[in-house]
């Protein structure tokens, strides 16, 4: 063993490709640090494999913009250090094969990820390494170093050949109206802005935040965590320092640290659950015969449900790529068990396409939760698409912003414009059924019907579980039956003694 260690120490420094996937940052980056510490030259590479990306995830235009902005920001930050980000378009296996040979690469470093498709990618890269003779080093850096040593950057003339593409190069609409701009720089600025208000940080409780405020009432850092532009661990330990100095602070699950622990919870469950993003073959997911209704799904996705609160949420999502977690809850409940009885998988795909912070584990986990398919079992609690938004925004300012067609309605009608008289609709400049749709369902009737469907599904599940249950596998169940049996024997003896007397 000592001889082997000596051989390792005497080995020449590596020529390394550091393969960026989600860790699009320079701060707190263990895999990148490992590359720097073990290499004489490091090629920072991002392989833009559109065939792979579109086959394993749904990515909308806003999320493409955010990704390209994050790459552009990473490129600028590397340039300040005398290096370059090399963006190579094509399928990752032939791209790696070509450039490993072209640059005489001896090591590929990358972040270890938990998604099945990223695990498969890493396994394929390792097979390629065995074939071509390079080492693969993956380090956990996306869930809960000394950078003084400099590595020689790649040749300067490579920068233009492997630049970050423009949206037009990928045939993506050139304009992005999202207030979120991708990149480590913007993410760290947001982080520092929030951490500067230590009183707000210490007292933060998620349920008290407002789903329909015109500016985010939470940190708005989730897109930067999702793309890896900001380190979740940096945030966690900075919060720990603030909590240590505070006399009192909120606690998990509602505190800011609690939100990070929820993230870890979903990551942990997803990593151990097969078919986590599907109902079929998912052992933790309730099997439900959801309706298949493409027309209703399209109306929900395109903000044409006729319920202003829901439509404003879906409009904000499409325009900006972000909505408050309670707004997500309302939209998800409406689509699934609340009103339309459409599968959570369909909603998950829409959110994956449109959300800047779309995340394999959290997105699927929350959709199962909100549809009462897993984790959450109080299925009788249904979000009302009228009353829920009214509680925190009775004047409907959120609706007026995202649905300007309704902006002239009096506040008493803004959540239910169909209840306004024809004359009042004319005065508001919006005729329901013409300029804005009627509600696509009667919420009370639909929710009551769906409640009975969910009750039936759960009763069937319980009966099936009882029929297939083996009590010998459950010591507590056996003990309860034994105690119950002994109790019946005692009662019988007492009864006989009473009869004899």
Secondary-structure map with pairings?
Elements: H1 2-10, E1 14-20, H2 30-38, E2 39-48, H3 50-56, H4 61-80, E3 86-89, H5 92-102, E4 107-112, H6 116-132, E5 135-140, H7 158-161, H8 184-195, H9 198-203, H10 222-226, H11 232-245, H12 256-272, H13 294-301, H14 308-320, H15 325-338, H16 344-354, H17 360-370, H18 387-392, H19 397-402, H20 422-428, H21 443-468, H22 475-500
Parallel strand pairs: 1-2, 1-4, 2-3, 4-5
Helix pairs in contact: 5-6, 12-17, 16-17
Would you kindly provide a written description of the structure presented here, covering whatever features stand out?
Its cofactor is FAD. InterPro entries: Crypto/Photolyase_FAD-like_sf, Crypto/Photolyase_N_sf, Cryptochr/Photolyase_FAD-bd, Cryptochrome/DNA_photolyase_1, DNA_photolyase_N, Rossmann-like_a/b/a_fold. Residues 476-490 have a biased composition (Basic and acidic residues). There is one protein chain. This protein is an alpha/beta fold and 501 residues long. It folds into 4 domains: 2-170, HUPs (Rossmann fold, 3-Layer(aba) Sandwich), CATH 3.40.50; 185-272, Serine Threonine Protein Phosphatase 5, Tetratricopeptide repeat (Alpha Horseshoe), CATH 1.25.40.80; 294-443, DNA Cyclobutane Dipyrimidine Photolyase, subunit A, domain 3; 472-501. Helices cover 52% and strands 7% of the residues. It has helices at residues 2-10, 30-38, 50-56, 61-80, 92-102, 116-132, 158-161, 184-195, 198-203, 222-226, 232-245, 256-272, 294-301, 308-320, 325-338, 344-354, 360-370, 387-392, 397-402, 422-428, 443-468, 475-500; strands at 14-20, 39-48, 86-89, 107-112, 135-140. Helix 5 runs parallel beside helix 6 (116-132). The longest helix is centred in the last third of the chain and has 26 residues, at 443-468.
């Amino acid at each position: 063993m000592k001889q082997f260690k000596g051989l390792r120490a005497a080995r020449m420094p590596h020529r390394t490709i550091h393969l960026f996937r989600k860790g699009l940052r320079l701060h707190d980056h263990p895999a990148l640090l490992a590359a720097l510490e073990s290499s004489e030259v490091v090629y920072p590479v991002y392989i833009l494999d559109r065939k792979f990306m579109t086959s394993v995830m749904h990515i909308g235009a806003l999320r493409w913009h955010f990704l390209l902005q994050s790459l552009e920001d990473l490129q600028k930050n590397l340039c300040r250090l005398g290096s370059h980000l090399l963006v190579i378009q094509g399928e990752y296996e032939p791209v790696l094969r070509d450039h490993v040979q072209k640059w005489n690469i001896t090591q590929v470093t990358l972040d270890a990820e938990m998604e099945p498709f990223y695990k498969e990618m890493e396994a394929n890269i390792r097979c390629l390494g065995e074939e071509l003779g390079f080492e693969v080093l993956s380090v956990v850096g996306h869930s809960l170093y000394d950078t003084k040593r400099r590595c020689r950057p790649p040749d300067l003339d490579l920068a233009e050949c492997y630049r970050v593409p423009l949206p037009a190069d990928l045939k993506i609409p050139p304009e992005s109206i999202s207030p979120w701009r991708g990149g480590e720089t913007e993410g760290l600025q947001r982080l520092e802005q929030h951490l500067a208000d230590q009183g707000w940080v210490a007292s933060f409780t998620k349920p008290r935040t407002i789903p329909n405020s015109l500016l985010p009432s939470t940190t708005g850092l989730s897109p930067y965590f999702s793309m890896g532009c900001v380190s979740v661990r940096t945030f966690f330990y900075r919060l720990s320092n603030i909590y240590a100095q505070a006399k009192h602070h909120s606690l998990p699950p509602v505190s800011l640290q609690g939100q990070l622990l929820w993230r870890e919870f979903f990551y942990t469950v997803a990593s151990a659950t097969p078919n986590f993003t599907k109902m079929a073959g998912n052992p933790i997911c309730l099997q439900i015969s959801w309706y298949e209704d493409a027309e209703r799904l399209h109306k929900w996705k395109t903000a044409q449900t006729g319920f202003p609160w829901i439509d404003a949420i879906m409009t904000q999502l499409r325009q900006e790529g972000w909505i408050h977690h309670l707004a997500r809850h309302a939209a998800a409940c409406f689509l699934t068990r609340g009103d339309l009885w459409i599968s959570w998988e369909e909603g998950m795909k829409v959110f994956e396409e449109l959300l800047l912070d779309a995340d394999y584990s959290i997105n699927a986990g929350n959709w199962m939760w909100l549809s009462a398919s897993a984790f959450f079992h109080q299925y009788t609690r249904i979000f009302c698409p009228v009353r829920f938004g009214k509680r925190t925004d009775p004047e409907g300012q959120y609706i007026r912003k995202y649905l300007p067609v309704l902006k002239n309605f009096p506040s008493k009608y803004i959540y239910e414009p169909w209840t306004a008289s024809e004359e009042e609709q004319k005065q508001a400049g919006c005729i329901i059924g013409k300029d804005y749709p009627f509600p696509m369902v009667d919420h009370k009737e639909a929710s009551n019907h769906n409640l009975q469907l969910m009750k039936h599904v759960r009763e069937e599940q319980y009966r099936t579980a009882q029929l297939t249950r083996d009590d010998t596998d459950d010591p507590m169940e056996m003990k309860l039956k034994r105690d119950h049996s002994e109790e019946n024997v005692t009662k019988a003896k007492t009864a006989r003694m009473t009869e004899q007397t």
